[in-house]
Amino acid sequence: MNFDLKTLELTAAASEKCDLLVVLIPEGFKPGADALSALAALALKNGDLSAKAGKHLQLYQAPAVAARRLVLVGAGDGSARSVRQAVLAVGGAIKAPQTKRVVVCFAGAVKAGAVCAVVQAVAEASYVYTTTKSKVEARSLNRCVVGVPNAAEAREGFDSGVALVAGVEFAREWGNRPANHATPTLLANAAKTLAKLPRIQCKVLGPAEVARLKMGAFLAVARGSEEPLRFIELRYNGATKDQAPVVLVGKGITFDTGGISIKPAPEMDEMKFDMCGAASVLGVFRALGELQPAINVVGLIPACENMPDGRAVKPGDVVTSMSGQTIEILNTDAEGRLVLCDALTYATRFKPAAVVDIATLTGACVIALGGVRSGLFANNDALASALQTAGDVAQDLCWRMPLDDDYADGLKSNFADMGNVAGRAGGSITAAKFLQKFVGDMPWAHLDIAGTAWKGGAAKGSTGRPVGLLVQYLHDQSKAKAKAAAPRVAAKPAAKRAPRAKAV
Length: 504
Ligand code: BES
Ligand code: MN
Ligand code: ZN
Known about the structure:
34% helix; binds zinc ion; alpha/beta
């Protein structure tokens, strides 16, 4: 889908030829002398429209309006959050098969982040999954024009919106693919396609190399599957080599049956989403390829299936992780932490500025925070607050959870350095405490996205979260670095400006 940004007063918006014109009406809307203003003002006066975010009124072939359909929609205070709510409220009209061209126009000043939010919300509303359907009913929307009072001022937000959409949709696509269409090998191939983007490299390790690295915990999870594991390493080089990278580690369980500690049948299909952490890392790299920020990023993905089998790891088995620490695998369904712990040990070799792992790790996190906020755990307050802020700005929320050492008590084992599960109580926290045993003193954060990465029920599907949060965080970090360097040296791009990314 193509996005365009245009300077568009309401007078000009009325003559835009399109299938659907969406006009965002903020609180305190000041009508001009044009036809659209008159319509909106009258509707507001008669109480047929409200400026509250999401309240809307549809009109057909309105006089003096070139668009076939017109929706006036309340945009509340005009914040990113409110315009997102407004666009999603008219999502049905945007997604309708007869809507090929949409114009979304601001009927007032544009607040920070609002244009970026509109681009993302239009994409979110019109997204359709097609890959494994034989009757292809593709996304009907093919062009979206965002109209603002001053296009030059809105350009930066617009461009980041478009880059984010590419990243979020890449993550949604891989999240949604069934496990037989998203094996570890296919996931690795998807990562390799990202290396076509400027400044991105990709390396993929197979079982033999992973065995040589002594990733005993990761190998134990993969044992029960016919599908060979893959360890994916992505690099984005946006800054000089001496700059410590941010390392992102994504849980890539392409299907989680639970293994020998097998899961109950109902809703087990949703465990194809157990690689959404990995998908979010791929999505972030897709967006980085567009945005080209001045920062170094490493992406690590341990990818495998968790299956029951004659060769599968058994409850009580003890394995040696890459760190040398031994683990008693008391429950084979607590596999995410096993693949992540070896990836976290691997991450230490990059001497990272920060490590963030992203994982659909625990059902307990779904109970704690539901689908609104991802769980955030961190051993470093500055990192925690940077991530929380990034989530707020990107409207991709998270919430910090505790990491008191007392929570690790239940991980004690009589037969190994630790068990892989504690009791049911505080399950998302004890999982985080397990991971913390592998990060040493690196600044580390863990995002438990079990509740936010996908939706169940009729709207079943991947959300692409937390690509928005992570890209915002990386963008903020690159800006902060540039600012810190500014007083000493004149602002100069750290690496040669790469050509603009081509879509993959
Ligand atoms: N992938 C699951 C976590 C999960 C479950 C996410 C349901 C979303 C919905 C993870 O591998 C798992 O099975 N975790 C167990 C841990 C337990 C055995 C300590 C869980 O949460 O039940
Ligand atoms: Mn599991
Ligand atoms: Zn899992």
